[in-house]
Amino acid sequence: MTVLVAPDKFKGSLTAREVASAVASGLADVHPEVVARTLPVADGGEGTVDAAVAAGYARVPVPARGPTGAPVTACYAVRGDTAVVELAEASGLHRLPGAPEPLTATSAGTGDVIAAAVRAGCRRIVLGVGGSACTDGGAGLLTALGARLLDSAGRELPSGGAALSRLASLDLSNVPEVDIELACDVDNPLYGPRGAAAVYGPQKGASPAEVETLDAALRHWASIAGPSFAERPGAGAAGGVGFAAMAVLGARMRPGIELLLDLLDFDEALAGASLVITGEGSLDEQTLSGKAPAGVARAAAARGIPCVAVSGRCRLSSAQLADAGISAAYALTDLEPDPARCMAEAAPLLRRLAHRVAIDYFSLSR
Question: Is 3.40.50.720 the CATH classification of the domain at 48-256?
């Protein structure tokens, strides 16, 4: 019996690799004869580089700028001429040294990482755009690749989304051609009521007044950088990085989990498996909108392989789970009702939860 264990992270508790390891150990406790293959997955957000490394890509650390411009070390993953870049590595909220800086935070560090990968010979960049700390329309990313954003006096603009309101001209003559695929699961436009500032700005520390400032600046940015792209689904991803990547760099957008499963050779990993176990910290309505467990379940169903899920908590009904291709869900809260303890003791609880999976599934399959 072969089981493929392909979970996403339990955010705040365990990485995807740690989740997979705990589940595999729990299965072995009950049925040592079971072969548990582990393949941590991600949907383009935090953990994307880790998932690629677990699948055989090499991790490459490079110097980059964080959201405030402070130096950080960020990593990308590489195999052949393909680089996997995770925006959150350099430009994520966790990179903020203190309080959020919604008006001045920059995506330049992500551009630094892409530039390093291109210099190393990578011809294809897969860019996961979750977890951004900035709302700069992707302007910082472009400047790191050689773009110049100038005001009416010919001076280069400072970093951040608010400064875009003073943009007078955009010089792209030094920007290299880069083949970029965006791993993205949001369909927000760049600006407006569903735009990057209105929907995600408050999560990045923007006050109502700052949201208005950023939204107006993004609208002006789009009028110069590519007005026809501003309304495209995903233009508002990562504070507008989706817009800059599509409008200026010609990037193509695909659902994050779909793109990542292709990169991870997921179909090959499914070969010979009689059960797939996926999961994430919270199984909820967002899961159904293209998150990793739903993508894994769809891929398993296409091969006729049953799929179950583990999670910290589950807020989906049996009917919703079934519609997503998940035949059963097991939550840490089934074992421990205290969410704080579930977070603190996630690994041992998950191992115990895997005992239930093993007992339930193998008793049914025998």
Answer: no
